[in-house]
UniProtKB/TrEMBL annotation:
<feature type="transmembrane region" description="Helical">
    <location>
        <begin position="396"/>
        <end position="417"/>
    </location>
</feature>
<dbReference type="Pfam" id="PF07786">
    <property type="entry name" value="HGSNAT_cat"/>
</dbReference>
<feature type="transmembrane region" description="Helical">
    <location>
        <begin position="274"/>
        <end position="293"/>
    </location>
</feature>
<protein>
    <recommendedName>
        <fullName>Heparan-alpha-glucosaminide N-acetyltransferase catalytic domain-containing protein</fullName>
    </recommendedName>
</protein>
<keyword id="KW-1133">Transmembrane helix</keyword>
<keyword id="KW-0472">Membrane</keyword>
<feature type="transmembrane region" description="Helical">
    <location>
        <begin position="118"/>
        <end position="136"/>
    </location>
</feature>
<feature type="transmembrane region" description="Helical">
    <location>
        <begin position="88"/>
        <end position="106"/>
    </location>
</feature>
<feature type="transmembrane region" description="Helical">
    <location>
        <begin position="299"/>
        <end position="323"/>
    </location>
</feature>
<keyword id="KW-0812">Transmembrane</keyword>
<dbReference type="InterPro" id="IPR012429">
    <property type="entry name" value="HGSNAT_cat"/>
</dbReference>
<feature type="transmembrane region" description="Helical">
    <location>
        <begin position="148"/>
        <end position="167"/>
    </location>
</feature>
<feature type="transmembrane region" description="Helical">
    <location>
        <begin position="355"/>
        <end position="372"/>
    </location>
</feature>
<feature type="transmembrane region" description="Helical">
    <location>
        <begin position="174"/>
        <end position="190"/>
    </location>
</feature>
<feature type="domain" description="Heparan-alpha-glucosaminide N-acetyltransferase catalytic">
    <location>
        <begin position="45"/>
        <end position="178"/>
    </location>
</feature>
Amino acid sequence: MVPNYKNIQDEESKPLIEHSSSTHINHGKDTKTKIIEYLKPVQRRMGSLDAVRGLTIFGMILVDNQAGNDVIWPLNETEWNGLSTADLIFPSFIFISGFSIALALKNSKNTTSTWYGIIRRTLLLFFIQCFLNLMGDHFNFTTFRIMGVLQRIAICYFFSCLSFLCFPIFLQRLFLLSVTVTYISIMYALNVPKCGRANLTQNCNAGAYIDSKVFGLNIMKESNLNGPYYNDPEGLISTMSSFITAWMGLEFGRIFTRFYKKHDFGNTDIIVRWILLVILFMVPAISLGATVMPFNKKIWSFSFALFTVGASGSLILIAFILIDVIDWESLKCEKVRKIIDLIIKPMKWIGQNPITIYSLMVFIEIILMYYINVGSNSLWVQIYEKMYLSWLKNGYLASTVFSIGWLIFFILIAYIMQRNKIFIKL
């Protein structure tokens, strides 16, 4: 979604983050200090960022390519209130998108050329999924869904760039606070017709009401309508709350760009600050989620937004330490390094072309679900029933294996693209 990291990683001869040890080797008068280096030299790309980005696309593929109603818990999104691992996948991608903005725009100026790239990227993200949504609705402009996954990413991306480039740091954080207060005020204080105030049920909340007024029929229409309004899980108001997740990803990225080569203990500065931020967001998230403000992905409740920051921050923290900080060879743990490389390699392949792989996945789903029929069922259903359910028998197992099959398919696509040095940047 955002360009490469060349602005902050332009000297391959220097370590990403230098580490200084108090351990010295003394040789009489000729005292020499031997710095024990457990850190790798700078690479052209931040390996942990590509790996985590790819991991989130892994998750999207597994979650979105389930067949039937039998879905195992880790891959099954919560229907309303609650939390599952599947609920954290998309927020992690938004968080990583914000992180990438800090890297991409660190040395950028508020110029016409910079904004040309930002606006171009925003429009491409927004209208790629608009086209896919329109295609999925057989090009019916009256009822096709306007919002969606890429649209939410586009909006968060644009306003993150706007705040980052145009405001000083104090006003950036004030802007984040104002967005947060506005979201909470709308969801809890707006008197919604036929629903009242602070009603957070599935089809009777302020977000669903405003979406229905703004988009009319052009929203996601779930079959279980138990109130006056359809709730679009990527609606306009919940996108305001998802901006919290995106912006805090940017804050994590800002910490990285500020401290990664400042001094010998730069890695400690980064890791300690990330840990403190994780704790700072996790504690109130769990407290609110367990009491007055339940976790809810479909309206991106405030507690959910806080939790996604903590969870995503923990993920990038662990990946950063394992992939970019520790030099396993110096620790004589070459086997560990090889295992890590083997695990993250397919993630990196997908992480270098995430939007392309995601868009291709949605395109194939639409073709197989809505455009090709075999008998009375779609080709999608026929593939699942004939190739998986017929011999696996168990619906949960068949659906899981079905999604894994699609994951392998897209890993192969990503590998071919990487092998041929095809990197599609928006």
